Amino acid sequence: MKESFRGELEGDRVIVKDSVESGKIHNKGSVGRFSGGMLVLTLTEAFYLINEGKLSVDGVSPYEFLKKAALSSGDFEVRYLTYRDLKKRGFIVEDTGIDMKIARGGEDIKKAVVPLYERVPFDFNGIYSMVSEEKKIFGIVDGDGDLTYYSIEREEPHGPIKALKEKIEITVLNEMAFTENNEIHRAYYGKTIDKWLQLSIIESIYLVEKGIADIRDALSEKISPEYLKRQAEKKDPEFMQKLKIYSDLRDRGLIVKTGFKYGTHFRVYVRDIEHHAPYLVHAVPDNYVGTWPEISRGVRLAHGVKKDFLLAEASDPPKYLKVKRVRL
């Protein structure tokens, strides 16, 4: 039979005043912290012990405790479900009120788990700030009360591809562009089709803005990149953010190809296209606020083809977050 201890509810915490009882609770479950000879439990820790049959709170039934805790903290249910899941997985868990610090028995280094509900917005800049020093794990609670864990960290992708120097001429025909100069293909621009090199509009604009190319139409009239941007943006509202990320990745010495067949904007290679592309990159606007289901979809697609998912914000300068699903 489980040994049950007694505590008192005081605001947003539960106090176990008996020094013997508090020592037993702490030693058995590594929960709470001592203050003035008493064990102080967060509402999350206390509710877990209540449901485990190890704690009763004076004058408060378990169901009443749940309601009081929910009134005290707007995200209590999410925090509790995350705490419970981590404990069931065998972790020592410390609820800091902001995140959950977790470790296995005997480990000194603790990982930070941020509990969130799936309907909480994915705030790119907020998360980018949160992972400024090290990656964090986000525990996302879905509508069924199940947990999915994602590691998120800043990423600075780089590659060795050098900038081109020779000048070329590109002809734009409706949605695509062509050039007779196949030499730029060695820097992994375009795709060889018969005797021509086909280029995307994004590639063409980038090459013009780098001073490598001139663009003309089918009548050999010169076209400005600004005109091409306006035309492209009419058909694709995401075009400008995609162009900014494409340009930044190319400036970083990476090879950038369309990610259409993978359900995202770009697939990115480091050295050549004969080897595995390590990244799928999805471009989002500056100050992006999205949803976790969107992020989950991108991560699952990337995982299915053994690539890392990068969310790229078209800010100045662009910023990158690497998001991976993890199993704890």
Structural class: alpha+beta
Helix segment tally: 9
Strand content: 25-35%
> CATH H level of the domain at 5-117: which superfamily?
tRNA intron endonuclease, N-terminal domain
Which strands sit side by side, in order, in the main sheet?
6-7-8-10-11-22-21-19-18-17
N-end to C-end Cα span: 30 Å
- Stretches where pLDDT is under 50 for at least 5 consecutive residues are none
Supply the CATH class of the domain at 5-117.
Alpha Beta
The global form is elongated
Number of strands: 22
What CATH calls the topology of the domain at 5-117 is MutS, DNA mismatch repair protein, domain I
How would a crystallographer describe the biggest sheet?
A: 10 strands, mixed
Account of the protein in words:
With 328 residues, this protein is an alpha+beta fold. Among the domains are: 5-117, tRNA intron endonuclease, N-terminal domain (MutS, DNA mismatch repair protein, domain I, 3-Layer(aba) Sandwich); 162-236, tRNA intron endonuclease, N-terminal domain (MutS, DNA mismatch repair protein, domain I, 3-Layer(aba) Sandwich). The chain is built from 9 helices and 22 strands. It has helices at 19-29, 43-51, 62-72, 76-88, 124-130, 201-209, 225-235, 239-251, 292-304, and strands spanning 5-10, 13-16, 33-35, 38-42, 55-57, 92-95, 100-103, 111-117, 122-123, 136-141, 147-154, 168-173, 176-179, 191-193, 196-199, 213-216, 255-258, 266-269, 279-285, 289-290, 308-314, 319-326. A 10-stranded mixed sheet has the order 6-7-8-10-11-22-21-19-18-17, with helices on both faces. The chain has a 5-stranded mixed sheet with strand order 3-4-2-1-5, with helices on one face. Strands 14-15-13-12-16 form a 5-stranded mixed sheet, with helices on one face. Helix 2 (43-51) runs antiparallel to helix 3 (62-72) and helix 2 (43-51) packs across helix 4.
